[in-house]
Design brief:
alpha/beta, 7 helices
Length: 226
């Protein structure tokens, strides 16, 4: 059994990862980060996952980061979240360098709690952006092993247990583990219910449909835009 700082956003991937690691018998320290994201509603679902799994929970307040991370629909109120069926140039939903910041905080917490590893919930479709790639994770771990030398084990790990699974694979694993899907949050718009039309919502509902699994999520738009 290992003690693992588990970075949980409250979405399907990270919540499933937390359930997976708990089922393997690891001791979890769940961490989420409030960077004043538009969809910060997700944080309540991260806290709920920690409570459900009997793990201590740390919500890190980095709300001022949104002023530095301008230009993304997730952090900048002036940038609209696009519909999945009306793409715009580039990807306004990506926050450059965000994961480097989140993982730095996670390793700092790992020092505090004496963890053996940090776990991050990237999955197969996430490996496009630079800071979700296997190369990034490998090099980031090398850097952290230097940064935490003398404070953490030289063999400290950065785990990405879902990185080879597509979204359908994550949902299938979550079904097996009994993840309560109504206790996860995906929508980038962060309104009172899932919009059903942003890229995250379309990916979410598509995974359930492809697997033939009932999706308990309430969507503002009843049908997936095509």
């Amino acid at each position: 059994m290992s003690r693992i700082v588990t970075v949980v956003s409250g979405g399907i991937d990270s919540v499933t990862m937390a359930h997976h690691l708990a089922a393997e018998g690891h001791e979890l320290q769940v961490m989420s980060v409030d960077y004043n994201q538009r969809h910060r509603r997700e944080l309540q679902f991260a806290a709920a996952a920690a409570q459900r799994l009997g793990a201590p929970y740390e919500e890190v307040d980095l709300r001022s980061l949104h002023r530095v991370m301008r230009g993304s629909s997730l952090t900048d109120p002036s940038v609209a979240v696009p519909r999945a069926d009306r793409p715009v140039n580039g990807n306004p939903n990506i926050v450059p360098n965000r994961n480097a910041v989140l993982l730095s905080v996670a390793f700092a917490l790992a020092v505090t709690v004496g963890a053996d590893a940090v776990a991050f919930g990237v999955m197969a479709e996430d490996v496009g952006p630079s800071d979700t790639s296997p190369e990034f994770l490998r090099l980031f771990l090398e850097m952290e092993r230097v940064a935490t030398r003398g404070s953490l084990s030289p063999e400290v790990e950065l785990l990405a247990p879902l990185i080879e699974l597509p979204k359908t694979g994550v949902v299938a694993l979550g079904e097996k583990l009994g993840v309560p899907w109504d206790q996860t949050w995906t929508c980038f718009r962060g309104q009172d219910i899932h919009c059903g039309a942003c890229a995250a919502c379309v990916e979410r509902r598509g995974a359930f449909a492809d697997l033939g699994i009932t999706d308990p999520t309430v969507y503002r738009e009843a049908r997936t835009p095509r």
